[in-house]
Specification:
- By secondary structure, the chain is of the alpha/beta class.
- The protein is built from eight helices and 15 strands.
- Strands 4-3-6-1-2-5 form a six-stranded antiparallel beta sheet, covered by helices on one side. Strands 13-12-11-10-14-15 form a six-stranded parallel beta sheet, sandwiched between helices. Strands 7-8-9 form a three-stranded antiparallel beta sheet.
- The radius of gyration is 25 Å and the shape is globular.
């Protein structure tokens, strides 16, 4: 009888007098409203591609002499970032003269982390490089932030989106249609801060519950010195966790003179790419291999692209962030 009468909305008098069907009705309404609110909160993402939104710095951890981890809080502890794998976020600030400075960064956390977004940023300080006496305006500003300060962000932005099981979309320019690609092996070449989009895609590959182990990856990571290697712990943790699916090689321009360096030495070369980037165990054909690159323009233009061309890789199976 209660279930039947509960379908008829009770009167105010019924609710105030505590009639059983009125109590049931108000309880169901409360549950429905709570569920709707929860779904709305979970469905809403932090980023907006059409406008900048301020986010508050809640944690900073110094990683080296010129790099740090910056953690920003999202709107609520349950808010999801809303960043597709392979894309990045634009950060912006206005200096004391009223000039805007902005740059794109790839976070090292993604949609799997609720309530926060984290960036590993190399700070380019003034008077450390003769060609850039002012240093990096945005990285210096971020480094100067105190806990509780905010910076504006907008996104997502980018031309690559990793999906599942080696499938991803590429849009080389806004005028070109989206291109669907598939790979069983991803060869990656990164230089300096160019490691962050690679780490993002690696997480996408290895956290993919739909991938039963078919997709593999290899990374050649170039830096000036061993101390410049970013997110080293995260990369080496992936090697330990997925030893048959992920290969990692470092190369540095200036190794320590005590002979302790065990990685490669020198600029990225054809031989390095052939040995450490291209899948050489016969499990992935060239047509099922995609090469991803991110790093200094000089490294890409004068080292990576000519070497890859010699090895038979071009626009159809390479992508530069």
């Amino acid at each position: 009888m209660i279930l039947i009468t509960a379908s008829i909305p009770p009167s105010i008098d019924d609710i105030l007098s505590g009639q059983p069907h009125a109590v049931l009705f108000t309880t169901l309404v409360a549950i429905a409203i709570g569920t709707i609110i929860l779904l709305i909160k979970r469905g809403k993402t932090a980023l907006d591609a059409t406008k900048f939104i301020p986010f508050k710095l809640i944690e900073k951890k110094v990683l080296s002499h010129d790099s740090a981890l910056f953690v920003f809080g999202l709107q609520t502890p349950e808010t999801r970032l809303g960043l597709p794998i392979g894309q990045h976020i634009v950060l912006r600030f206005t200096d004391g003269d009223g000039r805007l400075h902005q740059r794109s960064y790839t976070p090292v956390s993604g949609n799997e982390t609720l309530g926060t977004v984290s960036f590993v940023i190399k700070v380019y300080r003034a008077n450390t490089h003769p060609k850039f006496p002012r240093g990096g305006m945005l990285s210096q500003h971020i480094d100067s932030l105190s806990i509780g300060d905010t910076i504006d962000m907008k996104g997502p932005k980018g031309h690559l989106e990793y999906l599942h099981k080696g499938n991803f979309n590429v849009q080389k320019s806004v005028r070109k249609p989206m291109e669907k690609r598939t790979a069983t092996h991803f060869g990656m070449i990164a230089g300096g801060t160019g490691i962050t989009p690679m780490l993002q895609v690696l997480h996408g590959i290895f956290r993919d519950s739909q991938d039963t182990g078919v997709t593999t990856a290899s990374l050649l990571y170039a830096n000036q010195t061993e101390e410049d290697i970013l997110v080293r712990d995260e990369l080496e943790a992936l090697v330990k966790e997925f030893p048959t699916r992920f290969r990692l090689e470092y190369t540095v321009d200036r190794p320590k003179e005590d002979g302790s360096w065990k990685g490669s030495t020198g600029f990225v070369s054809k031989e390095m790419i052939e040995k450490h980037v291209i899948c050489g165990d016969g499990t992935s054909r060239k047509e099922m291999t995609q090469i991803l690159m991110c790093g200094p323009p000089g490294m890409l233009k004068f080292a990576c692209e000519p070497a890859l061309k010699e090895l038979g890789y071009g626009g159809d199976n390479t992508f530069t962030f």
